């Protein structure tokens, strides 16, 4: 019995520390997301060269806020559930992790099997934003300029994504990263792909790294569910 209680205490402490780290990480991401939303230009001035091309396709600030909020809730439930030995909080923690795990599997299946659908969904969301904000929203414009220069791409699909955008209407031309020798790709015979295709190629090229990261995240989620269910079951015996 004493060995069993010692194991329970050890796992409980590890659960608390693990979820405390998640909580702090979530708070950090949430803070950065709010910072980017409020003052995106300062963020780009500091981290522009190190920015992730994948995250820049969507609005990085909202992405960070959503992920940060989820991690905050997850860390709170896990930490408090273990500390207070609350079956309710532990079950909520287990349920949230399970939902996230299932959602990730579904997203992976869609990404692998329905790449065309993913492109259609992104086009439906991102293209209208480009036509509405590029050239009018300084932070949004700067993020896309950095993305296109680093990834060597133009728009989400191609340069026509910027047609009728505030920039196009005001300048009468397309963004500088879309021009090759001062000409549009179709005029100079050059091939400049959209950022979606370029990023997709980068992911395929680094499929091993992406798969390893995904497997590591999945393993952590499974471990978190196993540990939370272990503590939940042990509380019945206590």
UniProtKB/TrEMBL annotation:
Segments traversing the membrane: 12-36, 56-77, 89-114, 209-233
The keyword Oxidoreductase appears for this protein: no
Chief subcellular location: membrane
Residues forming coiled coils: none
Entry keyword set: Glycoprotein, Lysosome, Membrane, Transmembrane, Transmembrane helix
Family matches, as InterPro entries: Tetraspanin/Peripherin (IPR018499), Tetraspanin_animals (IPR000301), Tetraspanin_CS (IPR018503), Tetraspanin_EC2_sf (IPR008952)
Assembly information from the UniProt record: Interacts with SLC19A2. Interacts with NTRK1/TRKA.
Function field: Structural component of specialized membrane microdomains known as tetraspanin-enriched microdomains (TERMs), which act as platforms for receptor clustering and signaling. Participates thereby in diverse biological functions such as cell signal transduction, adhesion, migration and protein trafficking. Regulates neuronal differentiation in response to NGF by facilitating NGF-mediated activation of NTRK1/TRKA receptor tyrosine kinase and subsequent downstream signaling pathways. Plays a role in the inhibition of TNFalpha-induced apoptosis.
Protein name according to UniProt: Tetraspanin
Origin species: Phaethon lepturus (White-tailed tropicbird)
């Amino acid at each position: 019995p004493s060995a069993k209680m010692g194991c329970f205490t050890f796992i409980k402490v590890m659960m608390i520390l693990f979820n405390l780290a998640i909580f702090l990480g979530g708070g950090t991401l949430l803070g950065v997301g709010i910072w980017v939303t409020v003052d995106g230009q300062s963020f780009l001035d500091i981290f522009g060269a190190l920015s992730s091309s994948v995250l820049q396709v969507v609005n990085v600030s909202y992405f960070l806020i959503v992920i940060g909020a989820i991690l905050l809730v997850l860390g709170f439930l896990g930490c408090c559930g273990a500390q207070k030995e609350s079956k309710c909080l532990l079950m909520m923690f287990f349920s949230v992790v399970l939902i996230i795990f299932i959602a990730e599997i579904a997203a992976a299946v869609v990404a692998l099997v329905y790449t065309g659908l993913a492109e259609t969904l992104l086009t439906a969301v991102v293209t209208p934003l480009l036509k509405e904000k590029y050239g009018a929203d300084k932070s949004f414009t700067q993020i896309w300029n950095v993305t296109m220069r680093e990834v060597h791409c133009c728009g989400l699909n191609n340069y026509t994504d910027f047609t009728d955008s505030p920039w196009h209407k005001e300048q009468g031309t397309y963004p500088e990263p879309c021009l090759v020798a001062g000409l549009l790709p179709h005029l100079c015979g050059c091939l400049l792909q959209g950022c979606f295709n370029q990023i997709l190629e980068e992911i395929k090229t680094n499929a091993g790294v992406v798969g390893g990261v995904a497997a590591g995240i999945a393993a952590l989620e499974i471990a978190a569910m196993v540990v939370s269910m272990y503590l939940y079951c042990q509380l019945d015996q206590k």
